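User: You have something folded?
Assistant:
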Amino acid sequence: MLELEHITAGYGDTVVLRDVTLSVPDSTVLALLGPNGAGKTTLLRVASGVIKPMSGRIILNGEDVTGKQPYDMSRRGMCSLPEGRGIFPSLTVRDNLILQSSKGKESATIEKAVTSFPALATRLKQIAGSLSGGEQQMLSLVRTFASEPKIVVVDEVSLGLAPIIVDRIFETLAEIATTGVSVLLVEQYVTRALALADSACLLNRGEVVFTGSADELKGDEIFKRYFGIEISPIQ
C-alpha cells in the first residue's frame, strides 16, 4: 500500500531522516515509534507529500508519487491527520463535515459522524475552534471514514486529551483498521499503539533501528530499544 524507499529528508540543510525504508502493507496497522526528535513527524510529512525528500522514493498503491502535493496524495486515497487537530477552526462543525465529505455524500457523513461521536450531534452549528480539544479531535477523525481512504496517516492523535477521550479515539482507529484501511500511526502511548498494530518501526536519530512484528516490541524489549541511550541499527 505505502512504501518509503531509502528516504533522506529534512528542512533546508538540516537532515532529519537518513536512508529510511519502511512499508505499510494493505489492510495493516504500522506503529511508528521513537523518542522525541527521532524524525517521526518528519517521516509522516514526507509520506503525505508535505515535505519533498532529498532522496529516495515514495510508492503509493504501486505508483511512484515522490514529489506529489498533499492534494494529489489525498486523491490517491491517503488521509492525513496531523498533530494539533486537522480542522478548519473558523467554520462550523457542520461545514467542516461537509468539506470532509465526498461529493454527494454530505448527509451520510454527518449522520455517521454524530452516530460515531454523539458529542458532535449538538455542536453542528458551533464554530469548530470553540470545541474542546477532544471534540476537535473527534471532528478531525471523521475524515478517516468520510473521505473513504485507503490509508490513514495519524500523528499523535491522543496528544493532550483526557483518558476517556483517548479510549474512544483508539476504538475508532480499531474500527477503521477492521474495514481494510491501512494505518501508519505515530502515538505517544506506546503500549496502546503496539496493541493496535500488526507491525512496528522504531526510529532513533533519523534512522530505522527496528522493523518487525508489534509483538516483538512488547514487554521488556520495548524498554531496551525505546529508551536505550545508544541504539545501533539492527543488521
Q: What stands out?
A: Residues 2-226 form a domain with the Rossmann fold fold (CATH 3.40.50.300).
